[in-house]
């Protein structure tokens, strides 16, 4: 099964590029930028990754980003992920980035997006991995800052496929960003947002995302199982959920594998991604294997997770069809 998963053509839709910053690269970038890190070794740094909740993860996630300063830093960050992705036969990825985590510490938006964009272009020609960018707003910052970031992104609209919402969900409901999302839709961006697992008011947040904001898909979102009506809405719209089992394990103590299975059985377009693989020590392949260990998924079910992902990907129909045909050919072979 491990070989089957390794060779499966994959699609990753829930991946924070800043969450792919491995300790080795963190040290390299710190040295490049003349910064000191509070760890003496890679092992010591990894040993500090002891989160047990979303906020405890986010603290280390943001602290780590200060080594990212220049366009080549962002290029190297994205290129390192895309190389790992290519090794795991990820054929297509939609990559989140958090511009406010950088502009808030004085790194220009332009520096961030140019570095990422250049890596995406090189990965396509050099590695055969295609990827697009999704710009996330930080929900624990004010809505006005999100709106300003949205406006700042407009000159780069051709390089960004959609917008997302991440960071600390507590007290930061989707409704806070209704006007930002409305403007993003008018500008032609596709819409997703995090509805993190087991958060306060999880169901009400999912309801706002689906019914009030009208997102195209949901990141995480397994708590939707608590509301039959919302499940029916998602099914009727063919919406997808980008689930991240290993991340769930860190944030909630459970992979939420049974919930993921239930969603799959109901016919919801569930997909599996890695979220922040450098911090959770699992890229997409390891996430699929962790889920398989928990659920004994069949080959057909593992393939279906990839078909789901290509189906809900923000790509033209004929491109999705070509990727789904790759999955079908792999399973048949
Ligand atoms: N949830 C919220 N914010 C995040 C996440 C996540 O899974 N990863 C990076 N920022
Ligand atoms: Zn996430």
Describe the structure.
- With 333 residues, the protein is of the alpha/beta class.
- It has a single domain (2-332), classed as TIM Barrel, CATH 3.20.20.140.
- It has helices at residues 2-7, 23-32, 42-47, 54-64, 71-87, 100-103, 109-126, 143-153, 178-186, 202-213, 228-237, 245-252, 257-266, 277-280, 284-295, 299-312, 317-332, and strands at residues 10-16, 90-97, 130-138, 160-166, 190-195, 217-220, 240-243, 269-272.
- Strands 1-2-3-4-5-6-7-8 form an eight-stranded parallel beta sheet.
- Helix 5 (71-87) runs parallel beside helix 7, helix 8 runs parallel beside helix 9 (178-186) and helix 16 (299-312) runs antiparallel to helix 17 (317-332).
- The longest helix has 18 residues, at 109-126.
- It is globular and about 50 Å long.
- It starts with a helix and ends with a helix.
- The mean pLDDT is 98.
- The protein binds hypoxanthine (HPA) and zinc ion.
- Hypoxanthine is lined by residues 16, 19, 54, 61, 166-167, 194, 196, 247, 275-276.
């Amino acid at each position: 099964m491990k070989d089957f998963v390794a060779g499966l053509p994959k699609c990753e839709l829930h991946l924070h590029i800043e969450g792919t910053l491995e300790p080795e690269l963190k040290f390299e970038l710190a040295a490049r930028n003349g910064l000191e890190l509070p760890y003496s070794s890679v092992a010591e740094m990894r040993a500090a990754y002891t989160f047990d909740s979303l906020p405890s993860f986010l603290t280390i996630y943001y602290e780590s980003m200060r080594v990212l300063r220049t366009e080549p830093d962002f290029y190297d960050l994205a290129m390192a992920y895309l190389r790992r992705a290519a090794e795991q036969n990820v054929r297509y990825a939609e990559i989140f980035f958090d511009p406010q985590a950088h502009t808030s510490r004085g790194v220009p938006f332009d520096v961030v997006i140019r570095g990422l964009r250049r890596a995406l272009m090189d990965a396509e020609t050099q590695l055969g991995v295609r990827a697009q960018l999704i710009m996330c707003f930080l929900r624990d910052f004010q809505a006005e800052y999100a709106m300003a970031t949205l406006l700042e992104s407009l000159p780069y609209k051709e390089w960004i496929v959609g917008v997302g919402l991440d960071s600390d969900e507590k007290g930061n409901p989707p409704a806070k960003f209704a006007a930002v999302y409305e403007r993003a839709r008018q500008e032609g961006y596709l819409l997703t947002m995090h509805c993190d697992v087991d958060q306060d008011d999880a169901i009400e947040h999912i309801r706002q995302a689906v019914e009030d904001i009208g997102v195209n898909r949901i990141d995480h979102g397994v708590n939707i199982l608590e509301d039959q009506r919302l499940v029916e809405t998602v099914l009727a719209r063919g919406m997808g959920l980008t689930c991240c089992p290993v991340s769930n394990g860190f944030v909630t103590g459970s992979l939420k594998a049974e919930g993921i299975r239930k969603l799959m059985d109901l016919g919801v377009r569930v997909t599996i991604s890695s979220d922040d693989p450098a911090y959770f020590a699992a890229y997409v392949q390891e996430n699929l294997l962790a889920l398989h260990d928990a659920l004994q998924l069949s080959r057909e079910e593992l393939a279906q997770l990839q078909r789901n992902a290509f189906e809900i990907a923000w790509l033209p129909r004929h491109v999705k069809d070509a990727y789904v045909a790759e999955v079908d050919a792999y399973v048949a072979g």
